[in-house]
C-alpha cells in the first residue's frame, strides 16, 4: 500500500481526498452555510465572520437611525407618509372673516358718504386760525376736546353783512363722553380786540367770523379749533329733513307764538302753537321758537336755542347714515366751515359711532348769578367778572365741572 500523506486541507472527518476544508466551510458537514438575511454587498463573495458581524451591526444601525430630514409633500403625513387630509376652516374663523369683510365695506362706504357730504359744504380757506391778540400758550386746550364755534346768522338775500343771531361753542369732550353746548348772549359786555368794549354781537358785524373767534378766545381763554356758520334756510331745511324736532314749550311761549306768527313767518301760513313737555315742530316753527326775543330775556332765548339743538341731536342719533346723506343735499350748501376733509372724515366717523350717543349738557354765558344789568355807551348790556367767568367756563369744558350743578 502506498504511503498515505495527509494533506493539510483534507477533511478530517471524511478523509476525503478531493475536498478542501475552506475557512468558510461548515466545519461539521463540509457544506457552505452562508446566511443572506441581510443584503450583503458583493453578494456571492464569501465574507469572514467578522465582516458578517460588522455588516449586520451596520444594517441594524441604519434601520434604527432617525429618518432623513426632508420636506414632506403638501398632502403627505410626515411620519407615516400617508396622504394628509386638508384641514377644514373652522366655522368661527369663517364667520369672523365674513364680518371683517362686511365691516371693511361699511367703513369704506361711510368714508365715501362723509366726503360726499364734505364736498357739499361751503369751504372757507383751509388755514390755521391765528389769533393776533393772544398767544396760543395762553389758551386752555386738550387733545381730547374739540371746540367748534357754531354761529347762526340772520343774513337776508342780497345782504353782505351778517348779524350773529346765535353764538355757541359745541365741545366734543372725549374724556367724559359728553357733548357740551355753551351759548353766549349777544348783549354780553366784552372787550373786542382793536375796537374796545362793546356788546359781543358787534364783533360779528365789524369783522365777521374771524373777529368773533378772536374775541371769544381773547376774553374767555378757550382754544377754538374750527367753526361752522349756518343761516336760517339751512336751519329750517335740516329740521324738515329730520321730520321735525321735539322741544318743551311753556303755555306763555305757545300763546306768544300763536299771536305773533305773522311777524316771523317766511311762508305766510297761519300757525297755532301748543304747549307741552315735548311739542313737535317743523323747521319754520322751530326757527320761530329759537328767535323769540321780546317775551322774556336773552337768557331764556339762548335756553330755547340749546333745547332745540339737543332735540336735533336726538333726531340725528336715530337717523340711519343713508338718510343723513339725503339730508345733507339740501342743507349743507348753506353751511360754511373751515374744517378740512381729513378732519371732517374723522368727525363723521366719530359722530356715527360715538358722539351722537354722548350725553349732552348746556350752559349759558354770562353764568347765572355772576352778572348784572348795566347801561353803557353801546346801550343796555350784561356786565360780569370776566376772569371769574373764564375760570368757570374752562372748568366746565375741560374738567367737567358744571357751575350750575355746584350751585344747586
Mean pLDDT: 77
Instruction: State the shape.
Output: elongated
Q: Structural class, from secondary structure content?
A: alpha/beta
> How far do the termini sit from each other?
152 Å
Draw up the topology in text.
Blueprint: H1 49-64, H2 91-120, E1 122-123, E2 145-153, E3 164-173, E4 178-184, E5 189-192, E6 196-199, H3 200-220, E7 226-231, H4 232-241, E8 245-249, H5 251-264, E9 276-281, H6 283-290, H7 298-317, H8 321-331, E10 335-337, H9 341-353, E11 359-365, E12 371-376, E13 379-384, H10 386-398, H11 403-407
Parallel strand pairs: 1-10, 2-7, 4-11
Antiparallel strand pairs: 2-3, 3-4, 5-6, 7-10, 8-9, 12-13
Structure description:
This protein is α/β, with parallel strands linked by helices and 408 residues long. It has one domain: Aminopeptidase, CATH 3.40.630. The protein is 39% helix and 18% strand. It is built from eleven helices and 13 strands. The chain has helices at residues 49-64, 91-120, 200-220, 232-241, 251-264, 283-290, 298-317, 321-331, 341-353, 386-398, 403-407, and strands at residues 122-123, 145-153, 164-173, 178-184, 189-192, 196-199, 226-231, 245-249, 276-281, 335-337, 359-365, 371-376, 379-384. The strands form four sheets. Strands 1-10-7-2-3-4-11 form a seven-stranded mixed β-sheet, with helices on both faces. A hairpin with a 4-residue loop joins strand 3 and strand 4. Helix 2 (91-120) runs parallel beside helix 8 and helix 2 crosses helix 9 (341-353). The radius of gyration is 47 Å and the shape is elongated.
Summary of the model, kept short:
With 408 residues, the chain is α/β, with parallel strands linked by helices. Helix content is 39%, strand content 18%.
Amino acid at each position: 500500500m502506498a504511503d498515505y500523506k495527509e494533506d493539510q486541507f483534507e477533511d478530517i472527518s471524511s478523509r476525503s481526498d478531493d475536498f478542501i476544508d475552506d475557512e468558510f466551510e461548515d466545519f461539521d458537514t463540509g457544506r457552505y452555510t452562508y446566511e443572506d438575511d441581510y443584503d450583503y454587498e458583493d453578494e456571492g463573495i464569501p465574507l469572514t465572520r467578522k465582516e458578517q458581524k460588522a455588516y449586520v451591526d451596520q444594517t441594524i444601525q441604519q434601520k434604527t437611525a432617525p429618518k432623513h430630514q426632508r420636506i414632506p409633500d403638501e398632502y403627505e403625513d410626515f411620519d407615516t407618509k400617508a396622504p394628509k387630509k386638508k384641514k377644514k376652516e373652522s366655522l368661527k374663523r369663517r364667520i369672523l372673516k365674513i364680518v371683517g369683510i362686511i365691516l371693511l365695506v361699511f367703513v369704506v362706504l361711510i368714508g365715501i358718504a362723509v366726503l360726499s357730504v364734505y364736498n357739499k359744504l361751503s369751504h372757507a380757506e383751509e388755514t390755521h386760525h391765528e389769533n393776533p391778540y393772544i398767544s396760543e400758550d395762553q389758551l386752555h386746550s386738550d387733545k381730547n376736546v374739540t371746540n367748534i364755534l357754531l354761529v347762526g346768522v340772520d343774513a337776508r338775500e342780497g345782504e353782505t353783512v351778517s348779524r350773529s343771531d346765535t353764538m355757541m361753542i359745541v365741545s366734543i369732550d372725549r374724556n367724559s363722553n359728553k357733548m357740551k353746548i355753551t351759548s353766549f348772549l349777544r348783549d354780553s359786555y366784552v372787550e373786542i380786540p382793536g375796537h374796545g368794549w362793546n356788546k359781543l354781537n358787534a364783533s360779528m358785524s365789524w369783522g365777521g367770523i374771524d373777529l368773533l373767534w378772536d374775541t371769544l378766545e381773547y376774553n374767555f381763554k378757550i382754544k377754538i379749533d374750527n367753526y361752522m356758520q349756518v343761516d336760517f334756510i339751512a336751519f329750517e331745511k335740516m329740521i324738515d329733513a329730520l321730520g321735525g324736532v321735539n322741544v318743551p314749550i311753556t303755555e306763555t311761549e305757545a300763546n306768544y307764538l300763536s299771536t305773533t306768527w305773522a311777524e316771523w313767518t317766511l311762508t305766510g301760513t297761519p300757525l297755532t302753537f301748543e304747549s307741552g313737555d315735548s311739542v313737535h315742530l317743523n323747521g319754520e316753527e322751530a326757527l320761530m321758537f329759537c328767535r323769540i326775543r321780546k317775551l322774556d330775556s336773552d337768557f331764556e332765548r339762548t335756553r330755547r336755542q340749546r333745547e332745540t339743538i339737543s332735540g336735533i341731536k336726538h333726531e340725528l342719533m336715530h337717523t340711519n347714515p343713508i338718510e343723513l346723506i339725503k339730508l345733507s343735499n339740501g342743507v349743507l350748501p348753506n353751511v360754511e366751515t373751515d374744517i378740512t376733509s381729513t378732519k371732517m372724515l374723522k368727525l363723521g366717523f366719530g359722530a356715527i359711532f360715538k358722539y351722537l350717543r354722548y350725553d349732552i349738557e348746556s350752559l349759558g354765558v354770562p353764568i347765572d348769578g355772576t352778572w348784572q344789568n348795566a347801561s353803557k355807551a353801546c346801550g343796555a348790556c350784561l356786565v360780569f367778572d370776566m376772569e371769574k367767568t373764564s375760570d368757570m367756563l374752562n372748568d366746565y369744558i375741560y374738567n367737567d365741572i358744571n357751575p350750575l350743578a355746584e350751585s344747586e
